Amino acid sequence: MDTEKKKSFGEIVINGLFKENPTFVLMLGMCPTLAVTTSLTNAIGMGLSTTFVLILSNLIISILKDIIPDRVRIPSYIVIVATLVTIVQLIMQGYFPSLYSSLGIYVPLIVVNCIILGRAESFASKNTPIDSLADGIGIGFGFTIAISLISIVRELLGGGSILNMVFIPEKYHIMLFVLAPGAFLVLSVLIAIQNSLRRKKGKENVSCDMNCANCNIHKFDKGE
Amino acid sequence: MNLLMLFISSSLVSNVVLSRFLGICPFLGVSNKVKTASGMGIAVVFVIFISTFVTFIINRYLLLATGIFNTDLTYLQTIVFILVIAALVQMVEMFLKKFIKPLYEALGVYLPLITTNCAVLGVALTVVDIKKYPTIKEALVYALGTSIGFLLAIVMLATIRERIENNNIPEAFKGKPIVLVTASLMSIAFYGFSMLNIGG
User: What is the ipTM of this complex?
Assistant: First the structure.
């Protein structure tokens, strides 16, 4: 990202939405992607809360990047993100209690979502607050759209309805898709479709090895 | 619930990776060789056990209203737990490096990666439920069951991946999609355990 020339606000947002889509291209934050996509409501709730945390954490971290000493930056990022997640938790508990109880443990687990720490380290700590804000919006909504897509497939095939609108009668429901195995299967097929589209254009398969360990954030731990 | 039942239900019936989707990143990322997978798995068992012990005590005696501060501080759970886990992982790493060299050489590279493994924070946040985990005994059995479930799943996936490495796979499914299909089939197999009627 360092070598690229200056981009406008809109370009950064578009970049996050498509070219660097966190779920389908960067393959970050797989736990919530698989866990909360049983229904579209859950996926949108999760997507928007993650977006909220991501936008604010990007903004705060890029403002504070010159104040935070390099050696303790990861713990500092974790404190900032955990504070924002607690805010989201309290807001959700207060205003959307049913969503909060159906998302359950995955709300506090936004703290360890690789997307947020990954963007803090690879984007917000190197760019201006405005650019980081754009990146947060792009990546956040990219994530929301991606998990909504997965949840639409799962809810439609597994439960036959989307947002309480029934599309498929009950005898044709495939229970597998709302259960755990369906999550892996749907994600796998969606990535394979994307791979075949990329191959037509002569590009490689999606190459991230889904190993959060390889993300830049761990350079800290290796003492670099 | 009987402790043995709790162990079985947390390791097999609701397997941490295959039915609760915690710790997916290392599960998919570090599972291409059985050796690295088992190293990662054992490191996770180790860290989850210690971190659950510490966070359970912190929660009971500091954060709950019945703790020493006499105020309800449970809203601080997320932030306190993640910091404690991050610090603990560093401390365990330093301790092993200094005193138990062979164990450090075996687990060393995996330890720093565990901080962002959501299974660790997930277990810590699950055992705060006083009704289900009234004493530290239940909490530790749950932690052990969950982490052994993780070890089992990641070693199994690595074994399968070593076998299918040179198989003829459709071009578009090469790489991650085939791993996800494998995980899906494993998940179907583990779903069979939910027919064991042991509750929880």
Answer: 0.84
